[in-house]
Amino acid sequence: MVLSMTSTEAEYVSIVDGVLQIIIATAANGTSMDFGGITAGKAALDALDSSVGAILLTGSGANFCAGGNVRGFAAAENRGAHVRGLADDLHEFVRALDAAAIPVVAGVHGWAAGAGMSLVCAADIALGGASTKLRPAYPGIGLSPDGGMSWTLPRIVGAGRAREILLTDAVVDAEEAVRLGLLSRLVADNDVRTEALELARTLAAGPRSTYASIKALLAQSDSATLSDQLDRERDAIAAAADSATGHEGVNAFVEKRRPNYS
User: Fold this and answer.
1) Where is coiled-coil annotated (predicted)?
2) What is d(CA 2, CA 244) in angstroms, rounded to the nearest whole number?
3) Are residues 116 and 15 in the same domain?
4) Which domain, by its residues, includes 232?
5) Strand ranges of the sheet holding 172-173, from the earlier edge strand across to the other edge
């Protein structure tokens, strides 16, 4: 995949070993959400092709993302219009992430607050460190959630716990985040970005049509009956067995070799 990017966009988006890396917060922006990254990331997601097998979300500063730029909110002439515009841009990015048929990994170092926490919830797999903390942060500034948190959080932690976390503006530490399923696992603080990239590389080299099927089945399962889901699983696994990916996977197993899905 070759992206046609301006020098500004290239600061936020890169492709390494089949992984589309998107920086969503920067030190220059005080680790608040950097909409240069959100805009460049949305354009890159719209241009995805088969050369990209995984997406990695990360921040380049001390935190994954400390939330929205509250000073920017305060300085806006029309705060409602300003925040609405930012929410529109963020939500288009979240929609593009959700539409991607490939795995989305988040490397969550430091704080993930406000919209940063929303993007953690939007990832398929999120790695953190012992110092990682998550916080909705919206009640603290008198605002309500954005970035899909009111939809994703209850599906991850349950409706009752989501109400408590949002209403009390709870700080969720790393161990609790793993227990609740907000983070998949913990690695050393200094290794969060490296481990997240390595995981994304491994996924990018894997069976992409299988991952697409898994993501589709999981997305459908929330509103499906068991009987409907069993039918979908049957159809999906039968289609996979006839696919090039399925042939390679089964043949490699029988031949006792590592499958080559490239």
Assistant:
1) none
2) 25
3) yes
4) 208-254
5) 111-113, 133-135, 172-173
